[in-house]
Amino acid sequence: MEWGKTILSSLEWGKTISNREEKERVADIISSMVKEGEIIGVGSGSTAYLALLKIARRMKNEQLHIRAIPTSQEIRMACVRLGIPVTSLWEHKPDWTFDGADEIDTEHNMIKGRGGAMFKEKLLINSSPRTYIIADPSKIVTQLGSRFPVPIEIFPEALTYVEEVLRAYNPKEIKLRMAKGKDGPVITENGNLILDTWFDHIPNNLEESIKSITGVIESGLFIHYDVHIIS
C-alpha cells in the first residue's frame, strides 16, 4: 500500500540554483555515464540534484534500473520523489560516485561541506573505485580557502577543546555555524556541530592534522584524493 499525496511527492530544491546553465551542462555529462544495473554514490548539493533529475528521466525513458547511495537526507528524499531506489554502504559498494564541491584548486584539492554532509561524502568517495566531481567554473580557485572556510564537524561536548587546539594552526577566524531555520547552531545528520574555520594558507597536512584532534569527526578538506573533475 502506498501513501497518498505527501510532502515528499512535491519536494523541490529549496534554494535558488546559481549558475544553473553551467550546472545543467555538467549534470548532463554525469547522466550520460549511467549504465544499467549500477550502484551509484550520490553526493550533496545543487549540481548533484540536477544530475539526479536527468538520471531519473533516463530511467523512465530507457527503462534503466540503478540504485543510489545518497550522502544526505536531502538527496535521499529527492531520490524517493524521483523514483530512484536507494541502498546503503551496508548492502552495496558503489560502482562510482559523483559529488559537487565548494572550491577546487589547480591540483584538484577541494573544500566541501557547505551542506554539512562532508563525513558521509568522504566515506562514499573513499568507498568508490571512481569518483567524479561536478563543478561549474565558479568553483575553480587558485588558492584553496580563498572563498570558503573549512567546515569541521565536531562532537558537541568537544567544542571548546577543539577550538583551543585549532587556534594553534593560526586560523583567521573560527565560527560556530548557526542555523537559519531554527534557533541555535546547525546540527548535522550525525548529531554534531560544525565549526567554519578560515585559514590564510592550507598546507597539505592540514586535513590529517585536523582529523587527529580528539572530538573532530571529519573536516571538509579533501587533499590529494583520486577524483576526476567534470567542469
UniProtKB/TrEMBL annotation:
InterPro entries: NagB/RpiA_transferase-like, Ribose5P_isomerase_type_A. Keywords: Isomerase. GO terms for cellular component: cytosol. Transmembrane segments: none annotated. GO terms for biological process: D-ribose metabolic process; pentose-phosphate shunt, non-oxidative branch. Its EC number is 5.3.1.6. GO terms for molecular function: ribose-5-phosphate isomerase activity. It is an enzyme of class 5 (isomerase). This is Ribose 5-phosphate isomerase A. It holds the Pfam family Rib_5-P_isom_A.
